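Chapter summary example.
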Amino acid sequence: MNTEHNKSKPRSRSAENMSVAQRRRNRIIKAKEMEASRPQSFAELAPRGPLGVKNQAVGILRQRGKGGVVMPDAQYKDTDLGAIDIEPNHLNGAPYNMMVVCEILNPNAERGSYRGRIIEVLGDAGNNDVRMLGVLRQFGLSQTFPDAVTDEIADLPFNPDDRTIEDAIKAGRTDLRDLLTITIDGEDAKDLDDAISIECLNNGNYKLWVHIADVSEYVREGTALDMEAFSRATSVYLVDRVIPMLPPKLSNGLCSLNPGHDRLAMTCEMYVDREGSVYDGKIYESVIRSDRRMSYLECYRILTSPQEGDREEYGRIIDMLTKMSELSDILKRMRQRRGALNFDFPETKVILNDDQTVKDIKPYPINFTNGIIESFMICANEFVARTFQSMNYPFVYRVHEDPDPIKIARFTTVARYFGATGRLSGKITPADISRYMDTIGIKDALPALNELLLRSMAKARYAPECLGHFGLASKYYCHFTSPIRRYPDLYIHRIIKSYLHGEDKRSHFAGLVDRASEQSSEMERNSVDAERASVAIKVCEYMQERIGEHYEGTVTSIIDSGFFVMLDNTVEGFVPFRSLIDHYYFDERRYQAVGAHSGGIITIGQAVSVIVENVDTDLNRIDFSLEQEPMSKSSARRAERKTSPLKKAGAKKKSPIKRSAHFKGRGGRR
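The structure predicted for these 670 residues follows.
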């Protein structure tokens, strides 16, 4: 403040009061401007996970002077958190080189200036269980349920008793216990929330029943159980454990459609014609009894390699599986006709030993019987969504919005270099993209191009508006079929049951579907990240024992500093350009790397042989090196001629002039 100025220019009292008010406003404005311009810090991001943990990081505690520094786990890289300094009085007795949970004391500081204190020691990061415990802390996941939830479900049975079933039928539930019904899931699944019945009609059409566990009968609105389910919003499937949305007493017991036991269900009964169109149907509360728990592999074996004795073992189920396969093919062809996109990416299956170490890694086994259940679930989800959208009823939809035209244009720029023809412009439909992808000439590049295309599209999410599902080429879509493990499914069951019971609760649900959609979308993203983190940990653990080994793989992606290679077992590693002899530059338009001196080319879909060079378990990073430096096309042709059988047999050598003229002409046309 300039006091001389104030002395030489006295002001009236009212003017002085106005000045104080103005200065206060200026301070508020300046504070808001500083807040807006401050770089986003870790603490300013939304807390992760159902526990809503904020201002905390998981990492390795290293010694620095008399204090320490926490190097956050690789999963925090997106927040650009940086190292966190720990003063001696904030170590709280934590030993160095251990995985810890650190509270950030100055969350609004800039990167490199964070200070923290240790609030939990998880243990030795080399321990199999400690790294997974770190994932639980990072993503706010809890393996236990609050006491209020435990107390609330204490009196629930593992199976409903006969009196409960009789009362439910008297109250209006449809008794379907005599209908042949089976579940088909993975071998390890314990939360069985969908079952199937099917019948061929005299006119050649099909009657399909999709029975879904009636979880909303037990998870009532406003209870502690419901609030916990809302908070979690999804079950999380880590490599070595499941973090369920509902307590195991419900998820594996009372709600699970276990064979031979009566269960309360929500049934979607549909009539499907021979073109795959659902021309009639209804949704209602039911009582079912699954006749048999089947697995995908078991069904695949029965349909492809029937054995003597199968008829005695499975009886009518064999004919049922044949009908299911027929209808599934019809539904699949129908989706193909309307242009549904098929992104078939291999998933990583980690096989563990009894001590939780990794025994093997391979692609998750998928066969057409997985597709049978997928087709039926899609069919039910579409029917339910269409039904409630037509009534303009408050609902939670699964939406996948139209892709950004700019991102699609960038994708087509790359795809053209792999033989794609035609254009994608204006109002793009899924059928347009399907036809465009069919024109790609270099089929080896298709998996990588599919992934690039997927990244060009919006992410699927939950919303209270029916915006359609672009990937499925569906106008109406929701998630109805997995209420044991997904909250949006549970929530729309609650809405459906309210409607079926004649309750006038439109205004009630209208105020809640937006919140349910937002929470479900956020927790879905959190669970996907947590699952990927757990896989990355186990993959690195497995590959650390294989440094120096040779593998065959495929180039999946290229960036400025190198390229990624996926092995046949789905493990992905990075080959840095600095590890190559030549200097490579990334041509983003062609999506390939070119050697400055050799002309060697690296492109997506290219088969390569690699050696495992390094595995960083702190950063969850695997580095490969190439067994052989890439060659230019002309060099490859020369090498091929040197070893060709014709040359060995004394074949006459072509004129160098004619050869160079020939290749020059071909190069010009390209």
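To summarize the output: The longest strand covers residues 278-289.
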